[in-house]
Amino acid sequence: ITVQVSDAGGSPLGGQIVTFAAEAGGIVTPTVDTTDNTGAASTRWRLGNTAGTQRLTATVAGVSTAATFT
After folding, report:
1. 34-48 in b/e burial notation, b at 16+ Cβ within 10 A?
2. How far apart are CA 3 and CA 6, in angstroms?
3. Contact 28/44 with Cβ under 8 angstroms?
4. CB atoms within 10 A of CB 1
């Protein structure tokens, strides 16, 4: 999974710390990544064994809304 962090004007933001978290027994590696000069940060997501919806969130400090993937 790759996310891109940008400012309100859509310009990419490098050097931002992104924290990834998985639910339902899923695993993310790494749990923290820093955006590069294109604003991209990545993790690998392995789904858990729990039946039903799997969810991964990506959060950036100071940003009130997390990106959610299901």
Report:
1. ebeeebebebebeee
2. 10
3. yes
4. 14
